[in-house]
């Protein structure tokens, strides 16, 4: 059997697409000829990504700098994409913020910051993109995290926010299904060479323990997550919607307990030594 993935002429928007996993997704679509737009806060990162996408064969590449916490900025940015590329065939919402911190050591504003970026950011992106989504036919993907269903010490903010993101996915699949819009969450496991992994597994010892909890015995690659997004955007996935799909080497089944408790211990020691 041969399967050809052809995204030429498709319009793809990746919010938070200027580094790490999400940039990998933008690059994968660009290398298959799609018109690709990326957005994040930092204009230099946006410009650098657009240049790279052009060099990879994108039908068109463009970018906007905005903060997903600002609904007006998101709406203006997505409208600018729509004016140039037409209705969106693919929307990926992946902007996120994370830092390990115990609830007892975190200010309310620290917790709120992560919820504002991950959860409210998703709400702002979904609402602003809705008028521009191809109907029927759009594939929408939210980038979630294992913390949505695996409790993890030092991660209460992301656990709460990403659980909300997944419930938005399930709900919008119902609200938008009659218009032929599909929406799914993709859950990367621990992905190598990313900011998220650097924050969550900051030492060689932590990395070793993380690997011990992953049945496939390796960290994921950015391409593993990008490949799932390509699949979801393809006709092969035309009946797939409302799902939360792990791309994690069965990290979920391995569980986060041990690694999470080590993180908790480390954060408590740090907090104790400051008192
Ligand atoms: C406790 C902290 C903190 C920390 C920040 N804060 N870092 N509190 N411990 N380590 C507090 C600040 O004191 C402040 O509260 C509040 O959080 C907001 O901080 P700012 O620095 O003003 O926020 P901002 O500049 O908006 O930056 C947002 C950010 C930052 C989330 C704090 O780290 C960021 O920009 N992150 C984006 C990149 C990122 O995180 N990538 C990884 C995604 S990975 P006060 O009370 O002082 O005002 C992911 C899942 C990974 O999401 C899963 C891996 C398996
Ligand atoms: P990353 O490189 O830090 O990517 C985050 C992206 O979001 C960047 O482009 C960043 O650019 C943008 N961003 C952050 N805050 C923003 C804001 N307020 N408004 C607009 N854009 C913002 O992190 P990553 O590790 O690759 O993570 C990418 C996604 O995968 C996230 O959704 C994360 O939760 C998820 N994830 C990662 C892992 C992992 O192993 N890394 C595991 C599970 C889930 P700017 O800084 O320019 O804004």
Largest beta sheet: strand ordering: 3-2-1-4-5-6-7
Which ligands does the model contain, each kind named once?
hexanoyl-coenzyme A, NADP nicotinamide-adenine-dinucleotide phosphate
* CATH classification, class level: Alpha Beta
| Coarse morphology | globular
Rg calc? 18 Å
Report the order of strands and helices. EHEHEHEHEHEHHHEHH
What is the domain total for the residues?
Answer: 1
Describe the structure.
By secondary structure, the protein is α/β, with parallel strands linked by helices. Helix 4 packs parallel to helix 5. The longest helix has 22 residues, at 108-129. The protein has a single domain (11-273), classed as NAD(P)-binding Rossmann-like Domain (Rossmann fold), CATH 3.40.50.720. It is built from ten helices and seven strands. It has helices at 20-31, 43-55, 71-85, 108-129, 156-177, 195-200, 204-212, 222-233, 251-254, 257-274; strands spanning 11-15, 35-40, 60-65, 90-93, 139-143, 182-188, 244-247. The structure holds hexanoyl-coenzyme A and NADP nicotinamide-adenine-dinucleotide phosphate (NAP). Hexanoyl-coenzyme A (HXC) binds at residues 96-99, 101, 106-107, 109-110, 113-114, 145, 158, 190, 195-196, 199-200.
